[in-house]
Design goal:
Blueprint (H helix, E strand, L loop, with lengths): L13 H7 L5 H17 L13 H116 L1 H17 L5 H10 L1
Helix pairs in contact: 1-2, 4-5
């Protein structure tokens, strides 16, 4: 073989290969060394620093700081505001319920008052109707009594007149009978009847 540098074996690490080759630039040697050290650091954790034990202390401290900040924010800011909103809503609901109860109580009182007024009006109307019926009955009875008295007076007057007419008629029956007999005799005999003949006719009759 001619003179020169033999190539590095393939089973050597990259950094040894870099050191074995003096012809490569120095910057290339530094970059390869940094890459090799980074690969060696992350090789045990599979490339996720959160799972590496040496980072747990910082992560725990960071979580404690975040927990403290969140606790302060929740206890000093969010919880009071939430409690205030809940209290205001509870107060609003309680006020609405109280107002509804008051309105319901007023409505019940008004309903009772209206029922009492209706009952009073019904009783008053019944009383007025009874008084009107009683008054109408009394007036009707009075008018009936007056009418009966007037009818009785007229009947009595008529009976008196009838009795007087009957007496007058009975008093004039003799004269009527005499005149009738006289007229009959004169018609039958053509002569004026004497008292004896009239008496005889009256006796025959």
């Amino acid at each position: 073989m001619t003179g020169g540098v033999l190539p590095a074996p393939s089973n050597l690490p990259r950094d040894e290969q870099v050191m074995a080759d003096p012809h490569e630039p120095a910057a290339s040697h530094g970059a390869d060394a940094t890459h090799a050290s980074t690969t060696a650091e992350h090789g045990s954790g599979g490339g996720i620093p959160q799972f590496e034990f040496q980072h747990w202390g910082g992560q725990i401290a960071y979580l404690l700081v975040l927990f403290a900040i969140l606790y302060v924010l929740i206890s000093r800011v969010f919880a009071p505001r939430l409690r205030k909103v809940i209290d205001e809503r509870a107060g609003t609901i309680a006020g609405a319920l109280e107002a509804a109860k008051q309105v319901q109580a007023e409505a019940e009182d008004q309903a009772k008052a209206a029922a009492a007024e209706v009952a009073d009006a019904r009783a008053q109307s019944q009383r007025l109707a009874a008084e009107a019926r009683a008054k109408a009955s009394a007036e009707s009875a009075e008018r009936s009594a007056i009418a009966d008295a007037e009818v009785a007076a007229k009947v009595a007057e008529a009976e008196v007149g009838i009795s007087a007419m009957r007496d007058a008629a009975m008093a004039s029956v003799g004269a009527v009978a005499e005149d009738t007999a006289k007229a009959i005799v004169e018609k039958l005999t053509g002569k004026t009847a004497t008292p004896a003949e009239l008496k005889a006719v009256g006796g025959v009759a």
